[in-house]
Amino acid sequence: MRGEHVAIAAVLLVILAGMVVAYAPPIYSHGFSAWEDEDGIHYEYSANHTMDTHTVAISSSTSYDITYLAVYYDPDGYAAVGGWDARAEMLDDLGTQLGIRSFDGYGYYTAAELLDLMKTADRDSVAILFASGALPDLLYDGTADCPLLEWLGSGGAVVNVAGCLGKYVSTGPGDITEVSGYAELFTGVEGKSDEDFNDNPGTLRVSGEIDNDYARSLGVYLTEYSYGIRCDGMDDYISIGGTSSQGYSTAVIYRSGGGMVMNFGMTVEYQVHTLHYLAQVLAAGLDYTSEILGYESGSTSDPTGLLEGVSGDDVHVYGYIGYTRAVFGMRVNLRSHRPDTGEPAVEHHVAAERRDRVPDAVEYDEDLHDVQRREYREQDHHVREQQGVQAHQLPHPSLPHAAALDRAAAPVAVYGPLRVDPVVGVPQVHDEDHP
Amino acid sequence: MIRVLDRLESFYGRLTARQILLWSLVIGIAVRVVVGVFYTYPVEDNYWILASTNFTAGEGLYGLPGYYYLPVWGYVMVLITAFVNALGIPYGTYLEDFGGAIKDCDVVIPSMGYSLAVMAALIVLDIMVGYLLHRVVMRITGDEKRSALAAAVWFLCPLTIAMSCIRLMFENLEIFLLLASILLLMDRRPVPAGLAMGACLLSKQFGIFAAILLIGYAYAQTRDLRYTAGYVLGTLVMGLVLMAPVLITGDLETSMHWLTSRAESGSSSSGFNLTLYLVPVLAAATLVMTYLVAKKGITDIPLISLMMVLPVAIMMMVSGNVQYYLFLLPFLILAMDRFTSIPYAMMSILAVFSLLCFISQCSIVYIDSGWPLSDLIASVADLLSPFEDMTGTYEHWKAYTGASVVLVVLFSLYRRVMPMRRGQGAVSG
User: Fold this and answer.
1) What are all long-range contacts of B311-314, with beta carbons under 8 Å and residues at least 24 apart?
2) Which of A46, A233, A409, B392 would you label with B330, given CA atoms 20 to 30 Å apart?
3) Residue B406 pLDDT more than 80?
4) Residue B297, exposed/middle/buried by CB under 10 A (0-12, 13-18, 19+)?
């Protein structure tokens, strides 16, 4: 064999080896755990390669602990502004980005299915995501007594992406009408102008540096305000992006009546450049009261660390590996889970098989695991494969989250104890007085 | 081309072939490292970082947007990523001042280590292309010095340097695999030649015309259908093997994004629309040439190289991105016609143009980024700022370069084919 033949064979073998590595089971594994004691919050990463780590301690004074996103997707029943195709791809990629960050509660729902869901879903842990630009008239008709506003009024959460929330109502496939007064409805601020909700189908970006704790610690630089909102008159909100010269904030989380709205002013067009930010914010568990209490960067080669002097009643830690596009992320609730016991907090570890959508990829400490395992369910979720959206084998997010447990034990339990509905597969509340 | 070779030959004076190779290698690598370290164009590098990130996150090549090409380069990138991760080299840092996106890509300032890792792979490929060129010319001419000069002309061409070390584009992988296919056919190894061609076609698609022409060449070599079928079979087998995981995971459409996105964008860009119309015409012309090669028993590689270049050059004349021109270069060198030195010179100027434009537009991302001598980079970028407005001239020059290739190739073909028709044999330079 001549030298040139050896060279050719070598290159071909390299290509074939790369193919095997690319499609073999994932060769990288990542994990994160956190706990606290009198010294502060300890954390530890595990990874079989060296990469930057970022650890963020976040406080919140609400009971929100969003672990499940119910995504509105109903191309057969309703229209979306600009069509559903690009949004289908966007939503699918968002699910993947969330999965990277250990946020596996993600499923698609038609308007009718959402209506059912809203009757029973747990307000603290389930959020409804709209990326359609137009809301279905089954849920929203521009009035305060529609199901969506009632969901918000009863403490539910809504995530709005790539659209002007409340401005457009779809009455069927291909039918979209416009309503007014939506800014006042969603913010609860009397007399708030609809002009405060930007609606620009082009791509508008703020210029200059985004300089706030959320952006710096989470590495999120949400610059598009095409659908941004002005926060004038709003009391409870946080702005995690930039603000345009006209006053539009690119990304805002605000209290909406008794509920919460997370508004991202991004467009569909630049989704590849922004979805990881969106996933990062959702996975980090921010709400409208969130504050960044501490932040540390490091490396998986030096995997342990301590956040000292972090105080607050309701603290969780979000750790991620990589840069602004994380290769792994995970949220660990600390005091929100066990506020008074002083026991070590729950430790989490995500195994490498997450990529294969193994439902039980999240392992808990043994004390809790036996209890929780009994409640764990799994189901194939109703997903519209024919629309190009891949089917997700969704884990059943049935673990009782701390906020609900706390409330159940508290003197004033708004919705009663949490129970799991094996049919719908999302955290539910059981209360006869439920709206 | 011969003129360039002659001048290089006189420049090198009494250097032996081995010395020419050695000095070309040393000078070429030195220039690449210096230029590449200072001025890596961040756009493509950003996408490679994105691909590496997605892969490290467990999403494979196509699980998330970021890698838009056919899989072969992605497979190489997977190994580069593994290397980078094993050494703990950071991918880059985010430049928040730009607020998230500029020029349709994230502004992640590539780390020196990451860029050098990709660059190293591309430099190795540059060297290997030079090596194969050397071996092919050696088989054609039997002249050691001329073979060495052919490799030197490739390795020292500004366009080659710019694409592997500034743009970090993988055109040289496609070229290597195509040259490998030609060389293996010359060695009468049809199945391995087909395997190389199968990999070539799944890196980028410019090799498709060459793949068809080589069917004619294989038949002309032996007049044996089984021999020819071996080449075709090898191509299909390798194609299927490399695409199988992509097909199984349902990522075919994503893997074709590079081609389809340009076709879609052609609706507003007259250039690519014209290309779409041209493709069937050029494919038909290639089939005719293939038939002639087979029927006339043409085994003259320089002549076949000209035929390979012609359809691609016509496409590039109307829609070529600067990196695509690199594909033409080795086959112009193989053609060994003195007139091909004209497009060679124009490509070199094109490369310099593109460098000036890229540096003037994008060197800002290196300022304050911790890259060595960032002040010097900034001052050079300032000096080059007038070139920021030269994009129009640059675009024109691209078209002129494509046109020069087409004209020269047509003329060279005429010079070679006419004597054959008169029964005088082909012109050899």
Assistant:
1) B311/B209, B311/B282, B311/B283, B311/B285, B311/B286, B312/B206, B312/B209, B313/B402, B313/B405, B313/B406, B313/B409, B314/B278, B314/B282, B314/B402, B314/B406
2) B392
3) yes
4) middle
Residues B175 and B374: their CA atoms lie apart, in Å, by 34
Condensed to tens digits (0 to 9), the pLDDT of residues B80-114 reads 999 999 998 888 876 654 444 443 345 677 788 88
For residue A424, pLDDT beyond 50:
no
Residue B131: predicted pLDDT:
96
pTM of the model: 0.81
Average model confidence (pLDDT) for chain B? 82
Report in angstroms the alpha-carbon separations of B292 from B295, B306, B414. 5, 14, 15
Candidate from B82, B88, B242 with C-beta closest to A19: B242
The span from the CA of A65 to the CA of A41, in Å, is 19
Q: B191: Cβ–Cβ under 8 A, 6 or more apart, which residues?
A: B230, B231, B233, B234
Token pair of A274 as six digits: 């922004």
Q: What ipTM did this prediction achieve? A: 0.89
Write out pLDDT tens, residues A224-273: 889 999 999 998 999 998 888 899 999 999 999 889 999 999 888 766 67
A87, A162 Cβ separation under 8 angstroms:
yes
Q: At what angle do helices B207-222 and B171-186 cross, to 10 degrees?
A: 10
Residues 6+ apart with CB under 8 A from A131: A71, A72, A80, A87, A90, A91, A94, A160, A161, A162, A163, A268
Do A219 and A199 contact (CB within 8 A), yes or no? no
Contacts of A96 in chain B (CB under 8 A): 59, 63-64
The pair phi, psi for residue A203, each rounded to 5°, is: -115, 110
> Are B75 and A16 within 8 A, CB to CB?
yes
Q: Is the pLDDT of residue A275 over 60?
A: yes
Q: How many CA atoms lie within 13 A of B392 on its CB side?
A: 2
Measured torsion, CA atoms of residues B206, B211, B217, B222, in degrees rounded to the nearest 10:
160
Tokens of B383: 């000096």
* 3-class DSSP assignment, residue B124: helix
Contact A223 B99 (CB under 8 A): yes
User: Which of the 8 DSSP states describes residue B389?
Assistant: G
% of chain B exceeding 70 in pLDDT: 78
Choose the closest CB to B183 out of A4, A19, A222.
A4
Query: Which pLDDT belongs to residue B263?
Result: 54
Strand bridging mode B92-94 / B108-110: antiparallel
Rg (chain A; Cα; Å): 22
Strands (E), A60-212: 68-72, 106-109, 126-130, 134-136, 157-161, 168-172, 175-178
- Phi–psi pair at B211, nearest 5 degrees: -60, -40
Q: Is A12 on the interface with B (CB under 8 A)?
A: yes
Of A49, A205, A301, the CB nearest to B99: A205
Contact A56, A295 (CB under 8 A): yes
Q: A249: which strand partners?
A: A229, A243
The number of residues in chain A equals 435
Which tokens in the block code for residue A291? 């504050």
Half-sphere exposure in the Cβ direction for A418 (13 Å, CA): 24
- Count CB neighbours of A421 within 10 A: 18
A28, A274, A328 ranked by CB distance to B100: nearest: A274
| Number of CB pairs, chain A paired with chain B, less than 8 A apart | 161
Q: Give the Cα-Cα-Cα angle B212, B217, B222 (nearest 5 degrees).
A: 135
Lowest mean pLDDT among A167-171, B53-57, B354-358: B354-358
Structure tokens at A413: 């339990």
Strand ranges, E, within A68-109: 68-72, 106-109
Q: Which residue of B has its CA nearest to A203?
A: B101
